[in-house]
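hey
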């Protein structure tokens, strides 16, 4: 019963959509397990470009069931408009399944997200203002509205009548913005329920039935490890768990059912929103990477911050996700540079640190310790095997792999599906069990060598 989890190893936007696209042929369902319409991916299918925020990218393949798991927070308006956009472009959407237990992003969550960010001023997180944090907060507070609640107008009215006065008081008195009318909210939400009723399901049951039939399922994380609520640089994080463990809580599988964790990262780092970024580049090298890599947010259009590749959080991300192999994306964007730098460790208050200090205050004081690698001038979009790559690009990939402690199985040299080097054929990709075995062997031989 194979289950592959795709997880971002950086601050999101690592190109997970391309990874899903590459693996799509092998799987029967793609399950989104956290986040909401704060995410965004652009998928190129032949000449056509699709921009999706909520519906898993697997929807573009007729053999795949796209599933939105219980761990996702759903803005029904976004979901309905994506379904309508896809249908209008000839994509069958009746297969889309949404967990009855997924929480709904209500209009007051969006208003509260914006109001809170405005109030925090210079301390703002730089959220996407999609209501993600307030929706997850209400879930934890047990006053959330779930997708199944949209189907019962009378019960929904009762719940909203209890919740809304407090939301309106906060919006109107503390933030001095408009509140919401109960009747209008109920009418809006019941309309959403009617439109989405046929898509609602017990998605954990669906997942487990398919796993029992031996089908291969893909669990797709949004954002990335360094934005994880528990493992990222709190408070500059999102409000869910993008790490591989999130696939269990938000996707409906158990840890032992995960057979592969494919970590996705770019050959350099990017970050959107506020928060410490030790390897950030604010010079013309950074500008060049932004332009060549088209580093603008899919959801907000914001210009992403860019920096050199940072091996410190990479080691951490490989560990907390138990990554079995890696896809390295966008190495083509580094072509043309005289040299490329990798951050090996940080200096914090005069001490060397090798382990990612999630603490935002410590990270803000971290000075990167770099190793310099010679660059390569040739464009590499046409390379289809490692031996096609310039020697310095190969060295860079080898260095990144050595630093990560996991095998790089796929290297992407352009946005198209065929612009991918399959460094390890798919049947040879390590499983979580074999990756753990070789990590243990490595640790054993290192211990022997030390003795
Ligand atoms: P929120 O998820 O909208 O609450 O935003 C919290 C932080 O996560 C902000 O720094 C956002 O810029 C960042 N963020 C959320 N979604 C994404 C994403 O898909 N890619 C990159 N950054 C994201």
């Amino acid at each position: 019963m194979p289950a592959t989890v795709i997880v971002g190893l950086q601050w999101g936007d690592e190109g997970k959509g391309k990874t899903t696209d590459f693996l799509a042929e092998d799987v029967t369902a793609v399950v989104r397990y956290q986040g909401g319409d704060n995410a965004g991916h652009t998928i190129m299918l032949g000449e056509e470009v699709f921009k999706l925020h909520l519906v898993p990218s697997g929807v573009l393949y007729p053999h795949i069931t796209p599933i939105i798991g219980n761990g996702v927070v759903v803005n029904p308006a976004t979901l309905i408009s994506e379904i309508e956009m896809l249908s209008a472009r000839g994509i069958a959407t009746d297969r889309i399944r949404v967990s009855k237990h997924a929480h709904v992003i209500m209009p007051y969550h969006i208003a509260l997200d914006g109001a809170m960010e405005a109030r925090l001023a210079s301390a703002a997180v730089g959220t996407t203002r999609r209501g993600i944090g307030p929706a997850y907060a209400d879930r934890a507070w047990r006053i959330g509205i779930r997708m199944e609640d949209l189907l019962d107008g009378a019960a929904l009215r009762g719940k909203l009548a209890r919740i809304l006065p407090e939301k309106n008081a906060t919006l109107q008195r503390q933030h001095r913005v408009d509140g919401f009318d109960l009747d209008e909210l109920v009418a809006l939400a019941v309309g959403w329920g009617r439109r989405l009723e046929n898509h609602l399901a017990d998605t954990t049951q669906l997942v487990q039935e398919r796993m029992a039939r031996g089908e291969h399922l893909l669990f797709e994380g949004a954002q990335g490890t360094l934005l994880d609520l528990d493992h990222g640089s709190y408070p500059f994080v999102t409000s869910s768990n993008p790490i591989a463990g999130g696939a269990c809580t938000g996707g409906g599988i158990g840890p032992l059912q995960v057979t592969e964790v494919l970590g996705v990262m770019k050959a350099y780092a990017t970050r959107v929103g506020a928060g410490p970024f030790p390897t950030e580049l604010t010079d013309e090298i950074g500008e060049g990477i932004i332009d060549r890599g088209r580093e603008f947010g899919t959801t907000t259009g914001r210009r992403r911050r860019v920096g050199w590749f940072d091996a410190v959080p990479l080691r951490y991300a490989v560990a907390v996700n138990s990554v079995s192999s890696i896809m390295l994306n966008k190495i083509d964007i580094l072509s043309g540079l005289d040299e490329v730098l990798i951050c090996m460790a940080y200096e914090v208050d005069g001490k060397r640190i090798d382990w990612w200090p999630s603490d935002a205050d410590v990270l803000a004081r971290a000075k990167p310790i770099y190793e310099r690698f010679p660059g390569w001038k040739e464009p590499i979009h046409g390379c289809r095997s490692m031996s096609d790559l310039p020697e310095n690009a190969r060295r860079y990939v080898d260095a990144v792999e050595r630093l990560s402690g996991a095998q790089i199985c796929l290297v992407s040299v352009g946005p198209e599906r065929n612009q991918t080097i399959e460094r390890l054929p798919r049947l040879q990709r390590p499983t979580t069990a074999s990756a753990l075995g070789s990590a243990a062997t490595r640790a054993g031989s290192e211990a022997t060598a030390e003795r």
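The longest strand covers residues 339-348. DSSP finds 13 helices and 20 strands in the chain.
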